[in-house]
Amino acid sequence: MPHSIFGRKLSRDTDQRLALLKGLAGALIRSEAIETTEAKAKAARDLIENLITKARRATLNDIRLIESVITDKELVYKLVHDIAPRFKTRAGGYLRLIRMGIRSGDNATMVRMELVSPKQVSQKPNPKSKSSSKKSSPKK
């Protein structure tokens, strides 16, 4: 009976797998979009979305938990101050996986993992008023 099995193994032992997931999280925060295999992206998705949720709250304890995963202080700052405020009103689903095709070397499915950009309200210009632009002068 397999109890307490952590996510996907990715053909790695525990330390290598955790280092891989932390590296993917850091790379995604740095560039906001990365290309990787589908299996790695699906394995890293839970970790990254959990980090963004903690960054939205941004308590001292949450920031320390983020720093335990992402050791680069600049990336932690970017996550808490730049990325997380974009998702203040979003309940979840911060990432998008877009299939790119198959890698020719080993036939692995490649995906582009990117942060979902928040919906921006499109502001339409106000219609021009119909005042006195078509007034015709009466002829005498």
Give a quick precis of the structure:
The protein has helices at about 15-30, 40-55, 60-70, 75-85, and strands at about 35, 95-100, 110-115. It is of the alpha+beta class.
Q: Which helices and strands occur, and which strands form pairs?
A:
Blueprint: H1 14-31, E1 33-37, H2 38-57, H3 60-69, H4 73-83, E2 95-102, E3 109-115
Antiparallel strand pairs: 1-3, 2-3
Helix pairs in contact: 1-2, 2-3
Structure description:
- α1 (14-31) crosses α2 (38-57) and α2 runs antiparallel to α3 (60-69).
- 42% of the residues lie in helices and 14% in strands.
- The chain has 140 residues and is an alpha+beta fold.
- β2 (95-102) and β3 (109-115) form a beta hairpin.
- The chain has one domain: Ribosomal protein L17 (50s Ribosomal Protein L17, Chain: A, Alpha-Beta Complex).
Number of strands: 3
Radius of gyration in whole Å, from Cα? 24 Å
Question: What is the assigned CATH homologous superfamily?
Answer: Ribosomal protein L17
Percent in strands? 5-15%
Helix/strand order, N-terminal first: HEHHHEE
Main beta-sheet strand count, sense and barrel state: 3 strands, antiparallel
* Structural class category: alpha+beta
Note poorly predicted spans: none
Overall structural domain count = 1
Distance linking N and C termini? 101 Å
CATH class: Alpha Beta
Q: Could you say what the CATH architecture is? A: Alpha-Beta Complex
So what's the oligomer here? single chain
